[in-house]
Structure formats: structure tokens, C-alpha cells
Write a structure and sequence with these properties.
This protein has 488 residues and is mainly alpha-helical. It contains 20 helices and two strands. Helices cover 72% and strands 2% of the residues. α5 (80-100) packs antiparallel against α7 (120-131). The radius of gyration is 22 Å and the shape is globular.
Length: 488
């Protein structure tokens, strides 16, 4: 497989779907991070404290954890053609609400709800998997993820200028509202430009909704166990917002949320049982089985890769500013190198996965990530800035190539569950971000980098237990006949 076969300069067939989808993801990321480069203006305009600003940053990633799980289920059921426009359309109105906010409470509520737009990533993963064969899916998903992910960097580079063009203390409001308007317009463009599958192909859906289908009793209990960290991360966020953290929530409300999360976990477990109760009485035929350990390993790998990226991108400008005593603008520019690598490294991770094997590529990427974070933990004020930036870019290459390698495997686990597998892995990425940022609030930056490296070592061991996708997977057509789909 060569990159030329993708015909990236074309705008027809599956290339058209790829371009329309990465642009939808790009816009969703612009909306998700439209506040970040404007925080100083927002803070001055509404007289926010530094703790309130930190709270808004935390709230921005909170809802994304459950949203990616729910959107993963919905996209498997209703298809990307409906789900992406719906997500962009709803997000645009929340964006307008944020732009019109006059109080911290209104800002916080809007930012919390906008975490929903971070689930857009999951939708395109399913769409690309429908349009590209196994031999190309890694590179195609890498381009989708890498170019779309660049939306956060694009927001950082353009929105401050847009705010200045409108001028005045309300400039930030116009810049934020503009991103909402773009999302609303693009929702219609996407709906009218795509279809869920190539002509003549079947869009396979789960037999039941409410939880991921598993194919053995052991996998059922494994699935329940792997859901616990998702709720633990939300409990950790609640703790950070409680009187023990930034005091946005009262002790009573925090306790209520803790109880609610416990109830929600058991409610979800009941639904998972309803979806899968037949496996306790009737064994699943071998042809229809898949191993849930594949999903669990991908979850861990995305926690170490995307989870660390989100955390590092959040702290790197301040780290450079404090370590090298340079201006905030210079620090921001130097730190942007981490996000810039997305344009090439994520597609390269997918391409190598297609060519050299999924397991081998993931092993190499996670190994490089361990070395990268070990080097970053050694950065001191005595270092030349150029070496610190090179170390950052070396590390980010392996981080983002690893993300590409993870999502080169996701569509090859079980076609009809691709949205849910992508949703769970994506949610684990956010779990990683929440966990690592919490660690950062308790320890030095050097220790923070070492904790990520140690997490990656555990992940590297787990990856060795992953099975290389090979052969074919079976899906059942609406008329009851079985269709075999190549996975290598």
C-alpha cells in the first residue's frame, strides 16, 4: 500500500468522505478549544479569578468522558451522516450561549456542556472505517485524526487575531460566536455531502443498544471492570471542583455527585447485562467471537498517548515560561511544536501500522514515548532552549504516531461495534488527561513526566498481549446471511 493510492488531491469517492470528515472533526476541535487562546480576554472582561479560570479548563474535558461512550453507541445505531451534523448543530448553540455569558456560572455551565463536542472524533472513526479497506484504514484514520486534531492549534493561532479585528472588550465574544456559526453551516454541508457507506455496502449495526456486545462470560466481567476508571475519573473531577479543590461545588453537591456516579455505574452494568445475558445460556459461535482484551489494551494505549498529549499541551507553555524565564508569547510558540506534529506523525503511525503490522508499530511507538518522557523529565534551566524544543518534538512524534497506531486497530476489532470501541478508547484518553493533570497539581513537572513514562511502561507490557488482527471478521447481513470482512 502506498500513500499515492489514497489520491489525497482528489475530491471524489472515499477521498471526498475523508476530506469532509477530517474537516468536521477539525471544526469540532476549534469549537472545543475556542476559549483557550482567549482566556486572558475572558478573564479581564468578566473579572474572573485564576481559580475560576482553572475551573473552566477542568470543566471543558469533564463531559467528554461519558459523551464519547454515548456518541459511540449512537453512531453505531444511527450512522455518522446523522450524528456529525447533529453534534455540530447542537454544539453551535452551546457556543452562542458561551459567547453571551455574563457571569462565571453561565460561562462554567456552557463550558461543561461544550465538552460534548469532544465526542465528534468517534463519529468520523466509524465513517472512515466504512469507506477504506483494512490495508488503507490505518493511514486514512491517521490523516483524519491528525489533521482534525490540528483544530485546537488552529484556534490558538487565529482566534486572538479575530478577537482583535472585532476589537473592544467584547472581541472574544465575536470570535467564539464565529466558530459556532461555522459549525452550524458545516453541519448542513456535511449532511448533504456524505453517505454512511459506499453504494451497495451494508451499514452493520449492533443487535442491541445500551452497552457493548461481548462474546464470552469472562469478557463480560472484564468489560464491567474496564468501565470503573471512567467513573473514577469523573469522581476525581468532582473532587477537584469540591471544597477540597477549587470550591465550585459545595460539599453536599459533591457527595450527591459521588452517589449519583455509583448509581449510574450499576445502572449501566444492568444494561450491559441485558445486552449480553444470552451468553450465560448460549455460547457464541466461534465465527462471531472477538476478544475484549483487544479493546482493553487499546484503551490503555490511548490513555498513555492521547491522555498524555492533552495534559502536556495544557501545561507546556507555562513549563517553558517558568523554566527558561521567557515571555508567555514565546513560551506558547515553542510549546505549539507539540501540537504541530499531529499533521504528520499521526498519519505516519497509521501508515506504518498498515505496512509493518499493528502490534509491532504500537510497540515501537509506546517504547519511543517512554524514552521521550524520560528525556523531558531531565529538562532544566541549564538546557539550551533549542534542545528542550527538540526533546519535546521527539516525544510528541511518538505520542501522536502511537495515537495513529491505536486507531489503525480500532476498526479491525468488530465492524458493527467500531463506534463503541472508538468511544471507549477515546474516553480513556480523557481519563488519562484528567489523571495526569491531577498528578501535576500535586507534584513537580519533572515527576509528572516520570509518572507518564511509568504509565507507558505498563502499557508497553499490556501491548505484548494484543493479538495481531488477521484473517476475517464475520458480520450478519439483514437477510441473515454472513459476510466476511478482511482485517489484514
Amino acid at each position: 500500500m502506498s500513500a499515492q493510492k489514497l489520491k489525497l488531491l482528489s475530491f471524489s469517492g472515499n477521498t471526498k468522505i475523508l476530506h469532509l470528515s477530517w474537516m468536521a472533526f477539525f471544526i469540532s476541535f476549534v469549537v472545543w478549544f475556542n476559549h483557550a487562546p482567549l482566556l486572558i480576554s475572558i478573564q479581564e472582561s468578566l473579572g474572573l479569578t485564576s481559580q475560576q479560570v482553572k475551573t473552566i479548563l477542568i470543566l471543558n474535558v469533564a463531559l467528554t468522558i461519558p459523551a464519547r461512550i454515548v456518541v459511540g453507541m449512537l453512531v453505531d445505531k444511527y450512522g455518522p451522516k446523522i450524528m456529525f451534523p447533529l453534534l455540530l448543530g447542537i454544539s453551535s448553540f452551546i457556543c452562542f450561549f458561551f459567547a453571551l455569558a455574563d457571569t462565571f456560572e453561565q460561562l462554567a455551565a456552557a463550558r461543561f456542556m461544550l465538552g460534548f463536542v469532544g465526542a465528534g472524533f468517534v463519529i468520523g472513526i466509524r465513517m472512515i472505517s466504512e469507506w477504506y479497506p483494512a490495508k488503507q484504514v490505518g493511514l486514512a484514520e491517521g490523516i483524519y485524526g491528525g489533521w482534525g486534531n490540528f483544530g485546537s492549534a488552529a484556534a490558538a493561532m487565529t482566534l486572538p487575531t479575530v478577537a482583535l479585528m472585532f476589537g473592544g472588550e467584547d472581541g472574544w465574544r465575536y470570535a467564539v460566536a464565529l466558530t459556532g456559526a461555522i459549525a452550524l453551516v458545516y453541519a448542513f454541508i456535511y449532511y448533504n455531502g456524505v453517505s454512511d457507506t459506499p453504494k451497495g455496502s451494508t451499514y452493520f449495526k449492533p443487535k442491541k443498544s445500551g452497552g457493548m456486545e461481548v462474546t464470552s462470560k469472562g469478557d463480560f466481567y472484564f468489560y464491567l471492570f474496564m468501565n470503573i476508571p471512567l467513573y473514577a475519573a469523573l469522581a476525581l473531577l468532582t473532587w477537584k471542583l469540591s471544597p477540597s479543590g477549587v470550591s465550585l461545588l459545595s460539599a453536599g453537591i459533591a457527595q450527591t455527585i459521588y452517589v449519583g456516579l455509583g448509581v449510574l455505574y450499576f445502572y449501566q452494568a444492568y444494561h450491559i447485562y441485558q445486552v449480553n445475558k444470552s451468553i450465560f445460556t448460549t455460547p457464541v459461535p466461534e465465527i462471531h467471537r472477538y476478544k475484549f482484551k483487544q479493546v482493553a489494551i487499546l484503551d490503555l494505549a490511548y490513555l498513555a498517548t492521547f491522555g498524555s498529549e492533552l495534559a502536556v499541551v495544557s501545561m507546556l507553555p507555562l513549563f517553558f515560561h517558568e523554566t527558561f524565564q521567557i515571555s508567555a508569547v514565546q513560551a506558547g510558540l515553542l510549546a505549539s511544536g507539540f501540537a504541530f506534529m499531529n499533521l504528520v506523525s499521526r498519519p505516519i503511525g497509521g501508515l506504518f501500522s498498515d505496512r509493518w503490522g499493528r502490534k509491532r508499530t504500537l510497540t515501537i511507538c509506546i517504547s519511543g514515548l517512554v524514552v521521550g518522557y524520560l528525556i523531558m523529565s531531565m529538562i532544566t534551566p541549564e538546557w539550551a532552549i533549542v534542545f528542550a524544543v527538540l526533546a519535546t518534538m521527539f516525544c510528541s512524534f511518538f505520542v501522536q504516531a502511537g495515537e495513529g497506531a491505536v486507531f489503525a486497530v480500532v476498526p479491525l476489532v468488530q465492524r458493527r461495534l467500531t463506534g463503541q470501541v472508538a468511544g471507549m478508547a477515546g474516553a480513556y484518553g480523557n481519563v488519562g488527561a484528567v489523571t495526569f493533570l491531577t498528578v501535576l497539581s500535586l507534584v513537580s513537572a519533572q515527576t509528572f513526566f516520570l509518572v507518564i513514562a511509568a504509565t507507558a511502561v505498563v502499557t508497553l507490557i499490556a501491548v505484548q498481549f494484543m493479538d495481531e488482527p488477521k484473517g476475517q471478521m464475520a458480520e450478519i447481513l439483514p437477510d441473515g446471511t454472513v459476510q466476511m470482512i478482511d482485517v489484514h
